[in-house]
Amino acid sequence: MHYQEISAALTKEELEELEKKAVESALGEESGIIKCNCGNEFLFDKGKIDLNYKNDEGKVINKTAATHMAANRVRCNECGNNFCVKCKVEPYHLGKNCQQYEREKNQKKCRFCGSNIRRGNDLVCTKRMCKWQARQCCNSQLECGHGCYGYGMEQRHPSCLHEECVAKEEAPTLGENTESFCTICYVQGLGEKPVIQLDCKHIYHRDCLTQRMNLKWENGAINFKYCLCP
Predict the structure, then answer these.
(1) Residue 204: partners with Cβ closer than 8 Å, 6 or more residues away
(2) What is the pLDDT of residues 175-224, one digit of tens each?
(3) Is the pTM of this model over 0.70?
(4) With CB atoms 3.0 to 4.6 Å apart as the test, which of 121, 136, 186, 209 could cross-link to 204 if both were Cys?
């Protein structure tokens, strides 16, 4: 499409914005200037390929991932955040190229363990523990469209723990989401077991809270601190 045809189809403001983006894109590609989400602009030099680099699980990433990281991973010298130069994802998708990350992001995952689900409309994987958790969990769908992380037969649903809802409004869960640890056990995330929400808005695993109440005081001195919010 010729420039005259584009200018005829767009308003003056839209054309100016298009021209601005085209100049920024060309400038960035030719000069190596990168812009971070914080607004900082800086020069980016490709790094060296490290075939011994390990991911967060301590496993060495493959050659394809290492090559992509060397060419596209950058850390802002102003805010310190790292991101992908190519797809702008922050933080950088370590161990995956952009296409692999996109597929992984759109893959349906088990609501309890986070592993990929390949079958139909299931929300739970085939692991025995996850299936058991599903039987204990509330099967209701909240108004936001996400599944409830409460327990079966509950009288009141807890606030949505899904990261999208928490990102929009932190107050209902005090900023806690499915990845946040239960502050009684400090072992598993809130999304890995059925939860209960107290009137103070704190959320815990239901079985952790039940166990705490059943143990009562921890020594011979009788007290009722166990009844207080952890």
Answers:
(1) 182, 183, 184, 190, 195, 196, 198, 230
(2) 999 989 999 899 889 988 899 999 999 999 999 999 888 887 666 666 66
(3) no
(4) 209
Spacing of C-alpha 207 from chain mean position: 25
How far is Cα 149 from Cα 160, in angstroms, rounded to an integer? 7
Q: Which domain holds residue 186?
A: 137-227
How high is the pLDDT of residue 126?
84
Say how many domains are in the chain. Answer: 2
Do 197 and 144 belong together in one domain? yes
Q: Tell whether 159 is covered by a domain.
A: yes
Using CB atoms within 10 Å of the CB of residue 149, give its burial: 0 to 12 exposed, 13 to 18 middle, 19+ buried: buried
Instruction: Round to whole Å and give the CA distance between 91 and 114.
Output: 19
